């Protein structure tokens, strides 16, 4: 390895170091440090929660066992049944009396360290960081179907020393086959593919242990955000809409797809954290097995009606439940929730979905992760970014799907925009809730109906008149109606979130240029990749490539010359031999 070190670049991230070949043979993206840091933070919390759940379960079982022993003893004394040794309990030399001993099989099996599967490991950086940075983690299995990636991963495992060698193992195999042949084996499964994770979801769901954690990334945002609706439907089973909320809708489409795969095996998911960062979405879900709980899935899914004229949208649940005696009856939802034409502007609706309309975060988890990250900020290379995202997530309304954009509302009416604080105050003064969203700095999640939202905007326009518009425009139709609610724009104390009041940064700029997706491993860099890696990198690579080609041509020409000289020498010798014999 020492002789080949000149061909590699040493990259350090967190406590792990990897050797990366200079010819882009194995995929690596520096921008994914945010993804890896967030995953480590969630994994730390999962290990802590898992331990607490095991202790609670063990304590509950011990209590029930003790109650059973006490009950049996009291029944025996009432019946006058003598106990062993003539009705007297005799303590043995080794411990308490036989009646107070716990029956065999009461204690739970000792909790083992969580076993982690990284299904698409590439260089193995993620697996190495898990092994080296997370306390209490078990074996980390890194898979890849590319031989160069597996060799790179194995090289990096050795490069990181004895701890990595003892905890991380790398295999050259198809992740789907490995997961299907190891059902319920892994406590954590991490899917971070280049593009869509759809082809891995079915096998991943089967390989996660009951109560385990599935972490999944999707980078095909053009598909999930409505650029190719038919492709999204074929991959995820949902039709996207191109609204301002499209990135949150992408999260909810991915969650609905995972739930659909889980339901086929009498399983269901509970999201603990779902984020949209940089150029991808990332979800963290617990996976449980329960045929009865699985029946609640239709209650968590909804179709979305989006008006094509204004920003109004409405959710149509897929199913509903009806309590009946001591059971629950599941029925189709009552609909439709909208008329053929929008009540506000008179335009038609587009329909998308189904999407996950239940909460996409567990606020208890988010708060705990945020506190943990703050206490260990020196151990996260991307601390500022993940802290900003988690802070914004912690302030979201978890029970409100999707969001509105204040600038879009104003664009529909063609009016100047009120300040975000003023608009929030009007909503709060009308006795509704409102919050920001981590997806969009201009997005606002609220439980106020669209009638109230448009009344607030009508009152705003009355105080800030606009030029006359064509009567058939959606904004003109909306403004032609008188407001039916009293609107109070006076400043409310809750108009700023806690983070805003403390001036905590929530939306940070990219740390460097071209911070985004990168080329697949092994691809030839050409001038069309300027948008991904920049002019300097492209020009530098092309110059280097031309020099390499020039050197190869010179070497090939020299070899041809050498061969030609050898042939000439042979011919000359043959001619001399013939002349001498004659």
Q: Quick summary of this structure?
A:
The chain has helices at residues 33-79, 125-133, 147-159, 162-167, 175-180, 198-207, 221-224, 229-236, 246-263, 363-375, 383-394, 406-413, 420-429, 450-463, 474-479, 498-501, 530-533, 535-581; strands at residues 8-13, 16-21, 116-118, 140-144, 168-172, 186-191, 208-218, 267-277, 280-289, 301-307, 313-317, 319-324, 327-332, 349-356, 404-405, 434-435, 443-446. The chain has 582 residues and is of the alpha/beta class. Strands 5-4-3-6-7-9-8 form a seven-stranded mixed sheet, with helices on both faces. A three-stranded antiparallel sheet has the order 11-10-14. Strands 15-17-16 form a three-stranded antiparallel sheet.
Side by side, the strands of the main sheet go 5-4-3-6-7-9-8
The average pLDDT score comes to 87
- The tally of strands reads 17
- Helix percent band: 40-55%
What shape does the CA trace take?
Answer: globular
First and last CA, distance: 59 Å
Look at the helices and sheets and give the structural class: alpha/beta
Largest sheet: 7 strands, mixed
Structural Rg? 32 Å
InterPro entries: SAM-dependent_MTases_sf, Trm1, tRNA_met_Trm1_C
Organism: Eruca vesicaria subsp. sativa (Garden rocket)
Region (Disordered): 51-110
Function: Dimethylates a single guanine residue at position 26 of most tRNAs using S-adenosyl-L-methionine as donor of the methyl groups.
């Amino acid at each position: 390895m020492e002789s080949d070190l000149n061909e590699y670049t040493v990259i350090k991230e967190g406590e792990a170091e990897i050797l990366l070949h200079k010819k882009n043979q194995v995929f690596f993206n520096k921008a994914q440090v945010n993804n890896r840091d967030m995953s480590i933070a969630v994994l730390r919390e999962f290990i802590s929660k898992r331990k607490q759940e095991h202790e609670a379960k063990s304590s509950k079982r011990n209590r029930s066992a003790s109650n059973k022993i006490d009950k049996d003893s009291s029944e025996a004394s009432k019946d006058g049944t003598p106990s062993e040794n003539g009705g007297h309990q005799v303590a043995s030399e080794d411990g308490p009396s036989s009646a107070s001993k716990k029956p065999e099989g009461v204690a739970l099996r000792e909790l083992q360290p969580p076993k982690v599967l990284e299904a698409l490991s590439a260089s193995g950086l993620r697996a190495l960081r898990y092994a080296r940075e997370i306390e209490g983690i078990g074996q980390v299995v890194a898979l890849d179907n590319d031989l160069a990636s597996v060799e790179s991963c194995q090289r990096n495992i050795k490069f990181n020393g004895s701890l990595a060698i003892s905890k991380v193992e790398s295999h050259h195999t198809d992740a789907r086959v490995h997961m299907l042949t190891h059902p319920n084996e892994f406590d954590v499964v991490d899917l971070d593919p280049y593009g869509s994770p759809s082809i891995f979801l079915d096998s991943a769901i089967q390989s996660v242990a009951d109560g385990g954690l599935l972490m999944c990334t999707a980078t095909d945002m053009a598909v999930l955000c409505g650029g190719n609706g038919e492709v999204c439907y074929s991959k995820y089973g949902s039709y996207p809409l191109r609204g301002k909320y499209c990135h949150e809708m992408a999260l909810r489409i991915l969650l609905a797809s995972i739930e659909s795969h889980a339901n086929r095996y009498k399983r269901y998911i509970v999201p603990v954290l779902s984020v949209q960062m940089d150029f991808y979405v990332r979800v963290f879900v617990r996976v449980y097995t329960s045929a009865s709980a699985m029946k609640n899935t239709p209650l968590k899914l909804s179709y979305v009606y989006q008006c094509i004229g204004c920003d109004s949208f409405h959710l149509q649940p897929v199913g509903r439940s009806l309590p009946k005696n001591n059971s629950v009856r599941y029925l189709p939802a009552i609909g439709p929730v909208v008329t053929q034409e929008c009540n506000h502007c008179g335009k038609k609706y587009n329909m998308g979905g189904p999407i996950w309309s239940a909460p996409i975060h567990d606020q208890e988890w988010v708060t705990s992760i945020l506190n943990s990250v703050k206490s260990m900020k020196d151990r996260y290379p991307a601390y500022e970014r993940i802290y900003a995202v988690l802070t914004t997530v912690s302030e979201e309304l978890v029970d409100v799907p999707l969001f509105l954009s204040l600038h879009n509302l104003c664009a529909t009416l063609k009016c100047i925009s009120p300040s975000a604080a003023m608009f929030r105050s009007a909503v709060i003064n009308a006795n509704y809730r409102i919050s920001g969203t981590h997806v969009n700095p201009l997005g606002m999640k609220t439980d106020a109906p669209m009638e109230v939202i448009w009344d607030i905007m009508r009152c705003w326009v009355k105080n800030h008149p606009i030029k006359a518009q064509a009567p058939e425009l959606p904004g003109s139709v909306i403004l032609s109606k008188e407001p039916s609610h009293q609107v109070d724009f006076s400043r409310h104390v809750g108009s700023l979130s806690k983070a805003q009041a403390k001036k905590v940064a929530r939306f940070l700029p990219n740390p460097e240029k071209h911070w985004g997706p990168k080329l697949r491993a092994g691809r030839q860099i050409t001038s069309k990749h300027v948008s991904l890696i920049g002019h300097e990198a492209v020009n530098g690579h092309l110059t280097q490539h031309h020099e390499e080609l020039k050197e190869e041509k010179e070497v090939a020409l020299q070899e041809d010359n050498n061969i030609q000289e050898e042939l000439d020498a042979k011919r000359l010798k043959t001619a001399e031999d013939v002349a001498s014999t004659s």
